[in-house]
Amino acid sequence: MRKFTLWLRRLSAPHRRATRAQLLLVVVAPAAIVAAVGAATLALAHSAAERDARVTRTLELTRTLADLRIRVTDAQTAERGYALTGADRYLAPYRGAAVDAAHDLSVMRILLGADSVGRRRVDTLARLARAEFAVVDHATNIRSQNALGRALTAMEGEDAMTAIRQAVSDLDRDERAHLSALQNAARRQRALVVSAIIVSTGCAVLLALLSNGVLSVLVARRDQAVAALHEANRAKSDFLSTVSHELRTPLNAIGGYAELMVMGLHGPVTDEQREDLRRIRRAGQHLLALITDILSYAKLESGRVEMRVEDIALDEILRGAGAMIEPQARAKGVSYRYIPCDPGSVVHGDRDKVRQIVLNLLSNAVKFTDAGGEVTLGVDPDAAPVRVVVRDTGCGIAPDKLESIFEPFVQVGRRLSTASEGVGLGLAISRALAYAMGGDLTVTSRPGQGSTFMLTLRPV
Ligand code: ADP
Q1: Which of 21, 40, 62, 416 is the one with CA 20 to 30 A from 215?
Q2: What is the pLDDT of residues 326-340, one digit of tens each?
Q3: Whole-model pTM above 0.70?
Q4: DSSP 119
Q5: How far separated are the first and last CA of the chain, in Å rounded?
Q6: Atom of ligand 1 nearest to the CA of 453
């Protein structure tokens, strides 16, 4: 029997075979590549933005430098024209040139930021420009007193303009070198970005193809597994129905003939023989019950159970089930109590299946409760949807077994081969029936103190 039940369990085990390597390929690898490409692109975009800002700053600087050079030259030219002619109109470009040049220089300082070499050059330039403007001012003042000769002499002093031109072209050269370095870097980066795009697109296409291939294989395998499972399920159900039928017929015959002999139809039997015959009948009935359980479970698993769902009055079903179990409880010394439920309590379900579940729960409760204990049946008045409750004060169930007892062929603390009743299918069948009716079957328990099974049913 044990081998047989193990074989059944193996057949009903779901097919879960997605390997780690496949998961790695389909999920982790693409995610890692996308993350790496994303990080690289982000870094490139960041450095490109920085470089663009530096290019803009360098261009602004060279433009300001050109402005400065024009201002100084204009001022000097204006001053020369004025010195030679004494005409005021020559002084127009000269007026305000010193202030504008100072402004240009402070703009350059800001643009150069932390560039210490550049800032030093700007300081030199500022000093030279101040000196040149001082010379121009001085010469203009002298000329305004009509002293042409002295003005020309003042102008011929040390020519700061050459130094200014030198400083400006130094700064200009530096900035142009800077600009060309930045442009080279931009070209390299552009090439890098294009390669990154090409490589990542290639990777993405490759991965998409690969993932598609892997997924197709997985789907095909799953389909095969599902088909194999259906086939195995069908074969199992057919096998069980045949075996059950083949077993039931001789078993019924054994029971029937034993009954005839007990009744003395084939001659007198002694008391010992009668007792033995009763044992044969009981064993036969037990075997029949087991076969019925196995058959029901097989039918449920292959989805071949018919449900006749209708509105049913609970009170009548519960009373009926209780009445069937009460003699068994009394014989064992267990007290049975039914807490009458609202007579108007109606649920949506299959009458026979609800009765079957409640009977199974009650017979378990009596089975696992010692003499002196109590079994109660009732409906939780506070629960919505409707909940039938079977409570006992029996041995209880260990917390780690609370879910496994609903699996087929699981019996806690009993060996299959020595079981006097059941094979551990009652709860599996009951829960499957509850699910099929849109309900649920759950349990709470405290070892040594008892268990409470709750059957939830769909309200009308
Ligand atoms: P069976 O009764 O044939 O063993 P079930 O599926 O009905 O099979 O129950 C599975 C197991 O759950 C039982 O063997 C028992 O260990 C445990 N169990 C069920 N009902 C109770 C209960 N009321 N009290 C304690 N244990 C229970």
Answers
A1: 40
A2: 999 999 999 999 999
A3: no
A4: H
A5: 42
A6: 23
